[in-house]
Amino acid sequence: MNLTELYQEIILDHSKRPRNFGPLPDATVTAKGDNPSCGDEVELAVKLSPETIEAVKFTGHGCAICMASASLMTLKILGRPRAEALAMVGAFRDMLVLAEEPEIPESFGDLQVFAAVRQFPQRVKCATLAWRALEQALASPEMGPVSTEKTERD
Ligand code: ZN
User: Fold this and answer.
1) What percent of the residues of the chain are helix, what percent strand, and what percent coil, each to the nearest 5?
2) For residue 80, how far is its CA from the centre of ligand 1 (angstroms)?
3) Are strands 40-48 and 29-35 parallel, antiparallel or unpaired?
4) How far does the centroid of ligand 1 lie from the alpha carbon of residue 120, in Å?
5) Which of 45, 78, 92, 113 would bridge 24 by S-S if both were Cys, CB 3.0 to 4.6 A apart?
6) What is the Å distance from ligand 1's center to 90 Cα?
7) Distance between CA atoms of 154 and 149, rounded to whole angstroms?
């Protein structure tokens, strides 16, 4: 199996069986992202503690690159300090859009498969969609756990 095949295998695996897919009832922040040119839509739900990402899940639909990127992202950022997760957003974007050969952080692991997307500029937005949503989620004010109890009113 050559490298390209290996990369395709990882992307296919994650797009068919996305990890951390589904609702996150005790999320403290959510963010939506869409990519109309491809039809990708992702909603990210994150449970933040003051320092770390305690839980993260996503829902939505999209192409294989979009879904695989969201799936791999959730695996990578889970349990990480917020600042580190934010730095990964920047590093991931750099990997995809920098004109020169990017430096891929060692911590990226399987995420480096998306470096191949550099050859397909029209798909870059597919790969970065979930990451932009994460950036947005980390920047938005926390709403606190969503209460399932309805306020009683006459
Ligand atoms: Zn797409």
Assistant:
1) 50, 20, 30
2) 27
3) antiparallel
4) 11
5) 45
6) 20
7) 15
CA of 61 relative to ligand 1 center, distance in Å? 9
In this model, does residue 136 exceed pLDDT 50?
Answer: yes
Residue owning tokens 């990127």: 69
Reported pTM: 0.89
Element (H, E) at 153: none
CA 62 to centroid of ligand 1, rounded, Å: 6
If you measure from the C-alpha of residue 49 to the centroid of ligand 1, how many angstroms do you get, rounded to a whole number?
31
C-alpha 153 – ligand 1 centre gap (Å): 44
Q: Among residues 107, 43, 104, which one has the least CA distance to residue 81? A: 107
pLDDT in tens, 70-116: 999 999 999 999 999 999 999 999 999 887 877 888 889 999 999 98
Model confidence pLDDT, tens digit, residues 20-64: 999 999 999 999 999 999 999 999 999 999 899 999 999 999 999
Cα 118 to ligand 1 centroid, rounded to whole Å: 14
Would you call 103 exposed, middle or buried from its count of C-beta atoms within 10 A (0-12, 13-18, 19+)? Answer: exposed
